[in-house]
Amino acid sequence: MSESSPAAPGGRKSANRGAFSGRSAFIFAAIGSAVGLGNIWRFPAVAYDNGGGAFILPYLVALLTAGVPLLFLDYAIGHRWRGSAPLAWRRFRRWAEFIGWWQVLICVIIAVYYALIIAWAMNYTVFSVDTRWGDDPAAFFGSFTQALGGGDVTIAFDYVGPVLLTVALVWIATLVVMTLGVQNGVARTAMIFIPLLVVMFIILVVRAMLLPGAFTGLDAFFRPNWAALLNPGVWVAAYGQIFFSLSVAFGIMLTYASYLKKKTDLTGSGLVVGFSNSAFELLAGIGVFSALGFMAQAQGVEVKDVVDAGIGLAFIAFPAIIGEAPGGALIGVLFFGSLVLAGFTSLISIVEVVVAAFQDKFGLSRVAATLGVGIPLTLVSTILFPTTMGLGLLDTLDNWVNQYGIVGAALVSTIAVTYVARGLPTLRDHLNAKGSFPIGRWWYLCVGLIAPLVLGISLALTTKDLLTAETTYSDYPAWFVFVFGWLMAMALLGVGIVLSLLPWPSRSHLQQLDSDGDEVAPEAQPGRSLDAEPAQHVTAGTPHALRSS
């Protein structure tokens, strides 16, 4: 596809945004986004802490009543209105544009700190060869990152050389992929990395299951605690895992869906992505707990005494396992290599949301939009995070952008679509037009009632915990938590509203035909299904008839 927008009949130009070559490319890209660091280092501990094998029940309920329905919602908005998050939400209803910019800003924050974790994983892949952390992985991680902790966290620009170098390499690789475009960059990378990730992780799981004590770990992981199902917190945890894992409400799936051909099976694709993501999480749980079972046996303690999550699991617990396990170097390279691949495909999807938004807003070419977005993100990320304050900054931003960014945006978007715009009938009909899995009232119930209810409860519980805690978050200084936590979260929404009020330039994609030269669908009308629209809106050749590209 050329860089200039081709002229359509009547002299109007078509938006030149790029596109996936087909459904398979989209599915690989979507799985690449969904399968990230949280699948490997968050799900196993969440499942173990919330009923073990019994957690699978609320997890599946959450997947089917919130994860997949919200995935369908993102797909429908992006695919029908053929734009990035701000453009698609604006075309849905003019006043809803702020939701799209809110999602873009969420991705900006996540992108700048996500690169740091990938950089650490790159370093640790190399360190695994000679188990450079020795007998004390915790002390080594502290000396490697030189991270300030607790009350010592402050604004500091003392750089950590090896981390600075790898963060820069992560961003160089990201920009190269992004400049190649939607199909040749985003999709092709996922189509190579995701199969490679699965193969590597299967080898890792098999190797971990052969370790002494592995089945003790698996027994601890899968043994059901049915009494836990009576605890509402377990159900909230299940929904929370699904929200964070499936990349809903980031603007990612919405943006990816806008690159699809018009006759794509959206609901069938959503089920493939949703269940593939969950299957990988289960695989990760098997691998992680097999390794933790070995560690518990080697140290003569219970499995519960070695369970950890997040950074503690990845960079402290697993290095300890690698140091003691036979063939530990192979386990280390596979584990940290998997983190790099999973993290990189997710980072690409996060940056794509921002690139697509600026490409649509200013009518830029792919290369210009990538450099215009990528260079500032690279500078901010490399200036702030490979420093002694990097870990504390990452920890604070991650907690607030997840709880008050992603959860908040998901809550607002479901309420806006269901009750304010009353756009579910239009979106339902769009999904059903070519979808192999028909949706109806159950989808209304999930999107309009179950999802916002759970999201609201999660937000309320998080706020209560943060405000009533005896100490500040992670014992960081109060001013640090306020600036990079509360103030950042409020700024995302505020700046998003301001950006939505700014006019779109004449060269933007707002008034252009879509990439196929078709008129873009009109705004959703309250309570109106597509079948009830006037005949002129459903004639052959329009987006409403879902003409092939």
UniProtKB/TrEMBL annotation:
<feature type="transmembrane region" description="Helical">
    <location>
        <begin position="20"/>
        <end position="41"/>
    </location>
</feature>
<feature type="region of interest" description="Disordered">
    <location>
        <begin position="513"/>
        <end position="549"/>
    </location>
</feature>
<feature type="transmembrane region" description="Helical">
    <location>
        <begin position="401"/>
        <end position="421"/>
    </location>
</feature>
<keyword id="KW-0472">Membrane</keyword>
<feature type="transmembrane region" description="Helical">
    <location>
        <begin position="53"/>
        <end position="77"/>
    </location>
</feature>
<feature type="transmembrane region" description="Helical">
    <location>
        <begin position="367"/>
        <end position="389"/>
    </location>
</feature>
<keyword id="KW-0813">Transport</keyword>
<feature type="transmembrane region" description="Helical">
    <location>
        <begin position="192"/>
        <end position="215"/>
    </location>
</feature>
<feature type="transmembrane region" description="Helical">
    <location>
        <begin position="442"/>
        <end position="461"/>
    </location>
</feature>
<dbReference type="InterPro" id="IPR037272">
    <property type="entry name" value="SNS_sf"/>
</dbReference>
<keyword id="KW-0812">Transmembrane</keyword>
<feature type="transmembrane region" description="Helical">
    <location>
        <begin position="235"/>
        <end position="259"/>
    </location>
</feature>
<dbReference type="InterPro" id="IPR000175">
    <property type="entry name" value="Na/ntran_symport"/>
</dbReference>
<feature type="transmembrane region" description="Helical">
    <location>
        <begin position="476"/>
        <end position="502"/>
    </location>
</feature>
<feature type="transmembrane region" description="Helical">
    <location>
        <begin position="271"/>
        <end position="296"/>
    </location>
</feature>
<dbReference type="GO" id="GO:0016020">
    <property type="term" value="C:membrane"/>
</dbReference>
<feature type="transmembrane region" description="Helical">
    <location>
        <begin position="98"/>
        <end position="122"/>
    </location>
</feature>
<dbReference type="Pfam" id="PF00209">
    <property type="entry name" value="SNF"/>
</dbReference>
<protein>
    <submittedName>
        <fullName>Transporter</fullName>
    </submittedName>
</protein>
<feature type="transmembrane region" description="Helical">
    <location>
        <begin position="159"/>
        <end position="180"/>
    </location>
</feature>
<keyword id="KW-1133">Transmembrane helix</keyword>
<feature type="transmembrane region" description="Helical">
    <location>
        <begin position="329"/>
        <end position="355"/>
    </location>
</feature>
